[in-house]
Amino acid sequence: MSDYYQQEVRFGFGAVTHAVQRIIVITTGVFVLQLLLDIPLGDAYVRDAPGGFWLTEYGSFAAKDVLRGFLWEPFTYMLLHAGLSHLFFNMLMLFMFGPEVERVLGSRQFVRFYVFCGAGGVLVNFLPFYLYQSLYGRTIDVSVLGASGAVLGVIMAFAMVEPNRKLFLFPLPFPITARWLVIIIVGMNIMTGMNGGSNTSVATHLGGLGAGYLYMKYRPILNRRRWRRGSIVRESKAPTAKPDELGKAVDNIFEFKGRGKKH
Question: N or C: which end of the chain has fewer CB within 10 A?
């Protein structure tokens, strides 16, 4: 199999699998870079986020920028965050739900899954972008940053793997299942979108959940096709031994004449 598992790094309150650990470290490192580059943003798109004009301007996602050729933004936006609490909550959710999903997918496939959910989730923003343009004749000037889309995809995968796992969700005094956690998240995002006036990218959240669902639902088909392609490559590269050569090789294993003994 192309996927593999790395040794877990254990802390006092839990265990972090390899890919989850790396994602947390890299994302936190990028936020530290944002703080180091922190300057007044002026009229930049993301006025409240640290990191200076250039990092947030060209790293965060904006639909109109992608249409202009900034094709890296669906991947870089998930590394940037608007503040410490934004970063902390996303990484806490990844820490809680990511290791279980990584154990199911393997480390390499988990990274692909995480990026797929993040990029696929934010691309859903093209729907309100074109809808607003068709209704009002102008584009909306909105930028998106943060790992929420990717993290919610991980939560969706966790709920599909362990739908009846009981969890405590503050401030509820009783546990709920992972399936109900996803239902609550979807409901909260729908209410947020209906109310409007929020800095939350509801499209990215719902898109990340949807991307996670699609990946986990069709993962067996994708893995089976990849395994078949790998088998074909291995069979084409492996030399086929002739019967005579195979027989000679077997005879040589049991032939001891002419060999000196070593003590």
Answer: C
16 — phi, psi (to 5°)?
A: -115, 120
H or E element at residue 11: strand 9-11
Give the residue from 204, 199, 165 showing the smallest Cα distance to 185.
204
- Residue 130 has what pLDDT? 86
* 179 close to 163: Cβ distance less than 8 angstroms: yes
| 3-state secondary structure (DSSP) of residue 63 | helix
The amino acid at residue 89 is F
pLDDT in the model for residue 135: 80
Q: What is the DSSP letter of 84?
A: H
Highest mean predicted confidence (pLDDT) among 50-59, 171-180, 231-240:
171-180
* pLDDT classification of 39: cutoffs 50, 70, 90: low
Is the distance from CB of 44 to CB of 56 less than 8 angstroms?
yes
What are the boundaries of each domain within the chain?
10-229
pTM flag (> 0.90):
no
Query: Class assignment of domain 10-229?
Result: mainly alpha
Contact 152, 117 (CB under 8 A): yes
**C-beta separation of 44 from 57 below 8 A:** yes
Whether 129 and 63 have beta carbons less than 8 Å apart is answered as yes
Measured distance CA(212)–CA(258) in Å, rounded: 65
Mean pLDDT, residues 73-77: 95
